Amino acid sequence: MTSLDIAPFANALVLGASIASIWLIAAIGLTIIYGTVGVINMAHGEFIMLGAYTSYALQSFLGLPFLLCLPASFAVVALVGLAIERGLIRYLYNRPLDTLLATWGVSLVLMQGVRLIFGSDPKYIAVPEIFQSNVEVGFASLSVFRLVVIGVTALVVAATAWLFYRTRFGMQVRAVMQNKEMAASFGINADRVYMTTFAIGAGLAGLAGSLFGVLAIVLPTMGTAYVVQAFLVVVVGGGTLLGSVAAAGLTGELQSVFAFLTNDTFARFLLYVLIVVFLRFRPRGLFAVAKARR
Amino acid sequence: MTTKQNLYHSKPAQWAVYGLFFAAIALIPVFVTDGFLLNQFAVYGIYGMLALSISLCWGFGGILNLGQGIAFGLAAYGMAMTMQMQSQDPDSNPIPPFMLNNSLEHLPWFWQPFWSTGGGILLALVVPTLFYVVFGTLMFRARVSGPFFAIMSLAMLSAFATLILDMQPYTNGANGISPPAPLSLFGTDLDPYGTTAYWIVCGGLVAVTVGAKLLTQSKFGLVVQALRGDPERVRFLGYNVALYETCIYAISGFIAALAGCLWVMLIQYVSPAQLDTTFSIGMVIWAGIGGRLSLLGAILGAFLIQGGQSYLGDQFLATWLLMLGAFFIVVVRFLPKGLAGLLEMILGSIARQPAKHARPEPAGLPAAGE
Q1: 0.95 exceeded by the pTM?
Q2: Tens of pLDDT along B54-90?
Q3: Residue B336: closest CA among chain A residues belongs to which residue?
Q4: Is residue A149 within 8 Å of A80, Cβ to Cβ?
């Protein structure tokens, strides 16, 4: 192959990394919620949407600079997640399919509630000038903001890994994941671990949302666009942090390469079919952990 | 016997209620003469069939299927293609207008079989069912179950929706297919606003309901219900769990496909909106609110929610989804068996109460009298 042939392909790979980072940051909150609490959170897309609206509201009503909106939307959505966990989810921990349905109800309420408050018209989040320019990455040209997304994603993954594998809290979480009763008998408050993990997962969705609000427009329905991909990343990855990183990288790159060979939508179809076939052989995902039945 | 049987579990009483329900929906055309209203009731009947299909695989089989729109939507497209081809002429006008607008010069190969009405309808029913068999086999033999299966069915649904959107020249993309004329069967046009169309849907609903009820009472149905409780145990008893799961999933898919065909017959339109995730999860909500463990409960749940949407939704347009979401949360939290489960509870407490009073008397009364 000559360099002329390689250029568009390399471009697709760089774009794939960008897609992967978007899917990963959308999926990371979902991963820790599913991996730890065992809840399939159908309201995850709406947590993302809430994050975007939080950033929008803080920016346009309080004039907060964009970079401060990121941690702020983490905090706000984490609080919302905390409230939902305390008010609803904690009663359903032994009924996994019902949590899925209840969180779907939550997503309906959140979506319609936001529509009532902010209206259905699109909102926009302003970002600093430099984020809007383009930059050359090897053969490819990528907007600076997509690089920011990749950077933030890497930071979030590192922070989450640190939290779960290097802190006392993380050790407690992993103990509860392995065996809730045994952990509880060693004095770990499993209820509080679940609550905190759920809130952190929701907060990460909020953080992702304030980034997505810049990548696309802010709408009450924007969450649904990310949620299926986020779920697939969790399913393919098997519910672990490392699994999600690998799964997002793999599916993001495949999506980009398929899209380069065919087109965007057909690539998505191909990818989904591939995932179905993949699950036939590895039903517990890429890095399945041997764990006790819940 | 010290306690009377709960009337809810009495088979004769159940069949009596089914009979009442069938009589009620059969009497509707006597009182409703307005064609538009009759058409709307028939559409509710189709929603009832969809809720029933969810009740069958989720309530009885324990397979939460968030992608029932796959069967419904694919069958609806098959039916719409059949009806579209009825208004084309093989010699003078073989290509549907939207294809000409997308500058197609030949009829695509997969449209060819739809020249034949019977063949088209057959394909509309068989293709989705076959897909369910293949997808179900792949998933269930790998022992993908519970939430993972729900997510995968949702992902497949969204994959199909994007595929249909993408194939603009062959499917007319987001605009969908709207056949210009009603379905013509055996040389007569079926007016979607007439009583015949209503009777067809009504007959379909009755047949499907009775079939499903008999199925759940059969040995097959008992095994399916057993694997809802604990698939591992059923596997250790020597049953091929994947086979049973695939069967109940495919049967539920077939019912949804039938519903898709009838829906297009009534509405004369199909678009990717029929494969929307919200619609498919809506079916689960109908069954969940009505009672997923009760076939009739699921059907009535669909009537209740869709009827509420049509009549309350107009008045409280903005808050309808909010109320629906909140209602659904309450049902999941407090009534996992839905409204039918509430009825079961009430009838159960009624059955217990007189028994307590009657304890001193010799218990010779037949269980569950009325």
Answers
A1: no
A2: 999 998 988 888 889 999 999 999 999 888 888 887 7
A3: A98
A4: no
B357 touches chain A (CB under 8 A): no
Q: Each residue of A42-83: pLDDT tens digit?
A: 899 999 999 999 999 998 888 888 888 899 999 999 999 999
10 Å CB burial of residue B272 (0-12, 13-18, 19+) is buried
- Identify the CA nearest to B341 among candidates B19, B20, B6, B15: B6
How is residue B232 written in tokens? 């591992």
Instruction: Decide if A272 and B158 are in contact by the 8 Å CB cutoff.
Output: yes
Helix (H, G, I), strand (E, B) or coil at A263: coil
- Distance of alpha carbon B282 from alpha carbon B160, whole angstroms: 18
- Would the ipTM clear 0.85, i.e. be above it? no
- With a pLDDT cut of 70, the percent of chain A lying above it is 95
Percent over 70 (pLDDT), chain B: 93
CB contact under 8 A, B156 and A116: no
Task: Answer for the pair A60, A288: CB distance below 8 angstroms, yes or no.
Answer: no
Per-residue confidence (pLDDT) for residue B344, from 0 to 100: 84
Q: How far apart are CA A173 and CA A17, in angstroms?
A: 30
Q: Are A100 and B150 in contact (CB under 8 A)?
A: yes
On the 0-12 / 13-18 / 19+ scale of CB atoms within 10 A, B110 is exposed
User: Looking at beta carbons, which residues of chain A come within 8 Å of B166?
Assistant: 263, 265-266, 269
The A-side interface with B (CB below 8 A) comprises: 40, 88, 91-92, 95-98, 100-102, 104-109, 111-113, 115-116, 224, 228, 231-232, 234-235, 263, 265-266, 268-269, 272-273, 275-277, 279-281, 283
**Looking at CA atoms only, how far is residue B128 from chain A in angstroms?**
16
- What's the pLDDT tens digit per position in A266-282? 888 888 888 888 887 88
Least confident of A257-271, B123-137, B198-212, B241-255: A257-271
Nearest to A150 by CA among A95, A82, A75, A208: A208
The percentage of chain A sitting over the pLDDT mark of 90, rounded to a whole number, equals 33
pLDDT for residue B369 is more than 60: no
CA dihedral B118, B263, B29, B291 (to 10 degrees): 120
| Residue whose entry in the numeric block shows the structure tokens 């329905």 | A221
Cβ distance B221 to B60 under 8 Å?
yes
A-chain residues near B277 (CB < 8 A): 224, 228
Residue B198 touches chain A, beta carbons under 8 Å: no
B117 pLDDT exceeds 50? yes
**Contact by Cβ (8 Å): A215, A153:** no
Q: Is B27 on the interface with A (CB under 8 A)?
A: no
Give per-residue burial for B157-173: e unless 16+ CB within 10 Å, then b. Answer: bbbbbbbbbbbeebbbb
Question: CB contacts < 8 Å between A and B, how many?
Answer: 120
Rounded Cα gap, residues A156 and A149, in angstroms: 10
Phi, psi of B319 (to 5 degrees): -100, -5
Say if residues B298 and B287 touch (Cβ distance below 8 Å): yes
Query: Where are the extended beta strands (E) located within chain A?
Result: 134-137, 140-143
Q: What is the pLDDT of residue B4?
A: 64
Chain A interface includes B287 (CB < 8 A): no
Contact A215, A22 (CB under 8 A): yes
Work out the pLDDT band at B51, boundaries 50, 70, 90.
very high
In the block, residue with structure tokens 């293709």: B127
Indicate yes or no: CB of A112 within 8 angstroms of CB of B150: no
